Amino acid sequence: MRRPLVILVLGAALGLLAAAAMYWSMTAHHRAWLREEQPELAWLRAEFKVAPEDFARISALHQAYLPQCAELCQRIASCEARIRTLLDQADHLTPEIEALLLEAAQTRVECQKNMLEHFFQVSRAMPPEQGRRYLAWVKEKTFRMDHEPGPPGEASHGHQGHH
Amino acid sequence: MDCMNHESSHGPDANLDPLLRYWRVDDPLPPGFNRAVWRRIVAQAAPSPVSPVEAVRLWLDRWLARPAWSIGCALVLVSAGLLAGYWQATSQTARWDRLMASRYVHSVDPYAQAVSAP
To answer: Phi/psi class of residue A161: alpha, beta or left (left: φ > 0; alpha: ψ in -120 to 50)?
Structure first.
C-alpha cells in the first residue's frame, strides 16, 4: 500500500508542477510584453511579425502620432460636451448648435484623415502581406459607422499615457 | 499446529494411527456446547461493518497493489497537469491578446478615446 501511494502522491505533485511549468513557459512572451512601457506595441510587433528594424520605425510613427491623436481626442470631447450642454437647454435648432455640429463633423473628417494617414504609414513599414492584414484589421476596428466603443471592460484602457 | 508441522516434515507415524482409532471420549459434552459452537461460527462468519474510509483504503489497496497501476495513474496525473497548464495558458494569452488589441485601437482612435473619456 505504502509504495504505490507514494508514487500516486508524487504523480499528483508532478502533475501540478507540469501544469505550472506549461503555463509559465507558454505565457512567458505575453508576460514580457506586459512589463513593457507600451504593451500594445509589443503585441502589434508579435501579431504582425514585425522585424526589429521595422518595429523601430513603427514605434517612431506611433510616438509622433500620439500627440495629434490626443489633441483630436480633446477637441472631440470638448465639442461633444458643448453640444450636449446646448441640447439640454434648447427646444429648437439654434445657429450655435448648427455651428457646433459642423465643427464636430469637420473634426471627425480631420480625425479620420489623420488616422488613415497613420495606418497607411504603419502598414507600409510592415512586410507587404502583414501590412495588408494590419490595414484590414485596423480599419475594421476603427472605421465603425456609429463609432461605438468596444465592451466596457476593454474600453477602459484607451487613455493610458495620453491625458 | 506444531504437531502438524512435525508430522508433515517427518511423514505419518505408523504407531499413532491405531492409537487414535481406539481413542474414545466418554465424558459427556457440557450442556449447550453445540449451540455455543454454532453461535461462535456465525459470529465469525458475519461480515463486520466497513467504514467509508476503510472501504476507500481497501479499494485503493486492490487497485494499487501492482506498481504498474500506480505508475499509470501517476502518468495520467502528469498528463492532466500538462493539459490543464496548456489550456489555462492558451485562454490567458488569448485574453491578453484581445486586451492589447483593444489598447492599441484606443491609442490610435481619438473617437474611441473621446467616447470612453470621463
So the answer is: left
- Between helix B67-108 and helix A2-26 the angle, nearest 10°, is 20
Alpha carbons within 13 A on the beta-carbon side of A90: 13
ipTM above 0.90, yes or no: no
Q: Does A145 touch chain B (CB under 8 A)?
A: no
CB nearest B114 (choices: A16, A22, A76):
A76
Rg (CA), chain A: 24
Which run of H or of E encompasses B111? helix B110-116
User: Which tens digits make up the pLDDT trace of B109-118?
Assistant: 877 765 554 4
Cell numbers that stand for A53 in this block: 528594424
**pLDDT tens string B17-64:** 888 888 887 788 888 888 999 988 888 877 677 788 888 888 877 877
Alpha-carbon distance B52 to nearest alpha carbon in chain A (angstroms)? 17
Q: A28: which residues sit within 8 A by CB, 6+ positions away?
A: none
